[in-house]
Amino acid sequence: MRRVLSLLLLFCLFLPACQAVSVAWTDAPSHATATPTLTQAATPTLTRPPATPQPKRALLPDAPLEVRLHPDGSLYVGDQVSFEIIAPQGVDMKGRTAQVAVKEAQETPLGSAQFEGYGIEGRQQATLYWAWNTSGLTAGDYQVSYSIQPGGPTWTQTVSLQPASALPANEQGAHWASAQNDCCVIHYITGTAAERDLPQLLDMAQAQAQDVSQKMHANFKEPIQIDLIPRVLGQGGFTSGEIAISYLDQNYAGGRIDIVMHHEMVHRLDGQLGGELRPTILVEGLAVYLSGGHYKPEPLMERAAALLDLGMYLPLSTLTQNFYGAQHEVSYLEAAALIEYMVDRWGWDAFNQFYRDIHPDPHGGDLAALNTALLKHYNLDLPELENNFLAALQKLTVDPKWKEDVRLEVSYYDAVRRYQQLLDPSAYYATAWLPDPKTMRERGITADFLRHPSAAENTAIETLLVAADAHLLKGDYPEVERLLDMANSAMDTYDKYSVVEHWALDDAVVFDWLAAGE
Length: 518
Prior knowledge:
Blueprint: H1 2-13, H2 15-24, E1 38-40, E2 66-70, E3 75-76, E4 80-86, E5 97-103, E6 107-114, E7 116-118, E8 123-133, E9 140-149, E10 154-162, E11 176-180, E12 184-189, H3 193-196, H4 198-216, E13 224-229, E14 237-239, E15 243-246, H5 257-273, H6 280-291, H7 300-310, H8 316-321, H9 328-346, H10 348-355, H11 365-378, H12 382-394, H13 400-423, H14 437-443, H15 447-450, H16 456-474, H17 477-497, H18 507-516
Parallel strand pairs: 3-10, 12-13, 13-15
Antiparallel strand pairs: 1-10, 2-4, 4-8, 5-6, 5-9, 7-8, 9-10, 11-12, 14-15
């Protein structure tokens, strides 16, 4: 009842925003995430092996490490459960493993995994994919034990399995399906927005693939594998062997689906064309440039000039050396505008020859490699190129509209990523939970992409973000500002109360912190 009352309160508070988005939200679908149902055993059992000589390293704490279970949210009989065991920041985990077991009729080892860098961030964790097949078990509580070796703690947690009969309606009977046209194979889960919109999505994919091939003067060697996921992950798109794109009706990460699809197809063909070294600043800049924008069509040079006026511009050397560590929208916009500048000045063929002719430098990293290629092809280095680029930006007259649009787009996506880190961590781009979709199809797994956090606070903040994105696309900047202020105030308050069991707050407290921002 407490959650129901809180949710009703949230929608009363946010009703104007909800009404605004009901007619405006058509371009981009959306999704959410969930938190595993975990209750810790009464007192964790912690043991350490006898002291043995070890290389000097930061010590693991005598306490449980952070564990995330997937699929997010409640677990049900029949789930294939994965484990992320996340190391404390700054601890050297080289050579360490995590061992996981569950007590069913008896202690059953589920497997072990070494600690390795995970995701763009390289977070140190041990990852066990689909290690616990709960098919055939009875609903109830199970003791899961963890052991870090060598030198780490052991502990137990109680994990609850709900009966299969309680599976959410959207998951009952859901399965993977595929459709193909000349360019692509689209994989989707039945009962989702992707299945509903499949004819339009196939036409869209065909048009985007043709445009990418035309702009890059190359054809795809094989059909493009596209996985349409009913869940927000990062900013909505990832590419490795296959393209994964978020597609859902409440996409709190925004972005036009055609632009995202084009962007990821550029990555796919770019990888096919190759090059010994393709620095990230150029890889991502090329995808935005050829797509005509990052999340929507946009004048790249003019918006990059707006970054200068706003004091947001970042040195190209910084982006070359740590592209993903910089503010996301700034780095992508600058990189795309730089490529537009180079292509406009020297032509596509000259740029493409330079781009495919960058080679690793064993001593100086990407920055030295980029300078070598620039000197060879253009007879200038990166500082000289940047000076010329900045001079071109400074000559532009920036429409105040674009300055405000850029400022609020940065604020919007900062709020999105803050929300993900706080309340939807599996969606955060640097460490997103994106297991191999091909293996998921082979194993018949859909829950990892169908479940997401759905507590009252998730629903409320996501509603605000969806509305903010809709108003940003319309250019209604005062309303964007208002909605983002509300979302950030709610997150400020959630952060404040997260030191206690936030779901145990009574309705009076929920009312106070939502209504007053305190």
